[in-house]
Amino acid sequence: MVGMSTATEPASVWAHARRTLSGLPDGAGLNIAYEAVDRHAAGPRARVTALRWLDRRMSVSEISYAELADRTARFANALDALGVRPGERVFTLLGRTPELYVAVLGSLKARCVVSPLFAAFGPEPVAQRMHLGDAVVLVTSPALYRRTIAPIRGRLPALRHVLLTGPARPDVLEPGTHDMAALLAQASPDHVIGPTDPQQPALLHFTSGTTGTPKGALHVHEAVVAHAATAREALDLRADDRFWCTADPGWVTGTSYGIVAPLVIGATLLSDEGEFDARRWYTLLERERVTVWYTAPTAIRMLMRRGAEEAARHDLKALRVIASVGEPLNAEAVRWGAAVLGRPVHDTWWQTETGAIMIANPAGSDVCPGAMGRPLSGIEAALLQQGSDGRALVDPDGHVRVLDGQAQGELALRAGWPSMFRTYLDAPERYARAFADGWYLSGDIARRDADGRYWFVGRADDVIKSAGHLVGPFEVESALMTHPAVAEAGVIGKPDAVAGELVKAFVTLRAGFEPTEELRTELLGFGRQALGAVAPKEIAFDDALPHTRSGKVMRRLLKARELGLPEGDLSTLEVNT
Ligand code: WT7
């Protein structure tokens, strides 16, 4: 087929997907916010509900596409009035509240780069990310400002403006802090999105590696082509759907599918301010007649633990599709979904770097329990032969070996799909190392069966997946080592039946400190204070952390010890085997 253009060739798949979008009027480019909001507001969907938001008490507010266009226009104009220019970075630190959607989409209208942060992060991860990302504007709530921002504001000299989503105590306010509602009220609702090159940066998502600072994966406006196409293909999302994505907006799923994709498709987006609670979730699914539900394996396992009786009390017949992402989905959970929720759970695989779903058991086709599925249209996946470090073997000429048929190797994707990240912020060499021979190297190990389905095997590196959240061990170790008692720390993911993994730290103490229960409690509290939700849940004292010859803590050995495996027997650490 070489040289021939067929309907399944990536270029024609994406060209076709691009044609389902409008593009800015007069050929002025492609802007995510225009596709998600303005084109609907200007057409027959103007009065359709874009956002149905449930507050903590489950009372509902609705925002139509026309209203969302108004508010996001005001937000863009407010940024302009504050002197914020296209290309500058706007961060959000918010739970699921209407202001989140307005800030993200309004920033995209203003052609700023927007970076939503996880509101459960403590001050340390937030300071690091805002510093790395040159945050110029932050949108947050007064409570989060007090808890997370006030302690670090002095470390963020580039931060010119803070927009608060509610009234704040005057004593916490520094110059440059504004009331978002007042700014929106003063701003004009008339706004025309400026020319936007599809390759212009739009979204910044931080992700963690094994070492060093978090990586800022930068995505461009063109990503919207993949957001919409993959939501259609993998989730079967349609304009008349009521779609609920449970991911936190601070992680990439919460943006790509929690904000952008459903709005581009013209669906109604459900958003729940509350946290997980089995009865609340079932009530929401039933009462809101959710048709497509995108969630995480940990959530499914929490529902499973609650038992089938709770599910049986609710009418879930409106549910057409259940899908999950972020961590291995056990075959048992897929079948439980079919038996108890009335629909199997469709596993999907992707990463912060890929921006959109790459591999899936697509809605509407048979699910293979335990498998991640097959590459979506326009995506070419491969398994690459691994070297001794577990990563793809790259020969001196820069070539990799693509494995055929049933095989196991590093999962790679042919570079060039629209939502592919375009760089790691300020780390071009790190970006370059993520590719070889035209392939993006995912860092995941997978195998392929005789039917061409991909199965997750494990990570090639030490990053931790806890409740679907990617946690960098280095970030946790560094935070612990700022405590005066800690000489050294090694952090691993400890297998957990519900969360997949729990963050566990092994700590060596400095001379003069005793490994007491009191100190353990203090260190757990210290970790929580600094790191928030990604803090270690368990700390063990260890006076002989294993090291490599170059002096690095050998986390894999710590993990083997934790699992009671013979030291060095790391092959058995893989998941799902
Ligand atoms: C890592 C990426 C993009 C949303 C998810 C979070 C793991 C993702 C699956 C799956 C097994 C999965 C991988 C991947 N992962 N989906 N279906 N089965 N593992 O993105 O935080 O960048 O994490 O999540 O290890 O590399 P992320």
Task: Reconstruct the topology from this structure.
Layout: H1 10-19, H2 32-41, E1 49-54, E2 60-64, H3 65-81, E3 89-93, H4 98-109, E4 113-117, H5 123-132, E5 135-140, H6 142-149, E6 161-164, E7 177-179, H7 180-186, E8 201-207, E9 215-220, H8 223-235, E10 242-245, H9 252-265, E11 268-272, H10 278-287, E12 292-295, H11 297-306, H12 308-312, E13 321-324, H13 331-341, E14 345-349, E15 359-360, E16 374-375, E17 381-384, E18 402-403, E19 407-414, E20 423-424, H14 428-433, E21 435-436, E22 439-448, E23 454-459, E24 464-466, E25 469-471, H15 473-480, E26 486-496, E27 500-509, H16 517-531, E28 538-541, H17 555-562
Parallel strand pairs: 1-11, 3-4, 3-5, 5-6, 6-7, 10-11, 10-12, 12-13, 13-14, 27-28
Antiparallel strand pairs: 1-2, 8-9, 9-20, 14-15, 15-16, 17-18, 17-19, 19-22, 21-22, 22-23, 24-25, 26-27
Helix pairs in contact: 2-3, 2-4, 2-9, 3-4, 3-7, 8-9
The structure holds 5'-O-[(S)-butoxy(hydroxy)phosphoryl]adenosine.
Domain AMP-binding enzyme C-terminal: 475-552
GO molecular function: ligase activity
Keywords: Acetylation, ATP-binding, Ligase, Nucleotide-binding
What's the gist of this structure?
By secondary structure, the chain is α/β, with parallel strands linked by helices.
Explain the overall architecture.
It comes from Pseudonocardia zijingensis. With 577 residues, the chain is of the alpha/beta class. Among the domains are: 65-220, Rossmann fold, CATH 3.40.50.980; 464-575, GMP Synthetase, Chain A, domain 3 (2-Layer Sandwich), CATH 3.30.300.30. The protein has 17 helices and 28 strands. A nine-stranded mixed β-sheet has the order 2-1-11-10-12-13-14-15-16. Strands 17, 18, 19, 21, 22 and 23 form a six-stranded antiparallel β-sheet that branches. Helix 2 crosses helix 4 (98-109) and helix 3 (65-81) packs across helix 7. The longest helix has 17 residues, at 65-81. The site of 5'-O-[(S)-butoxy(hydroxy)phosphoryl]adenosine (WT7) has 22 residues, from helix 9, strand 14, strand 22 and strand 23.
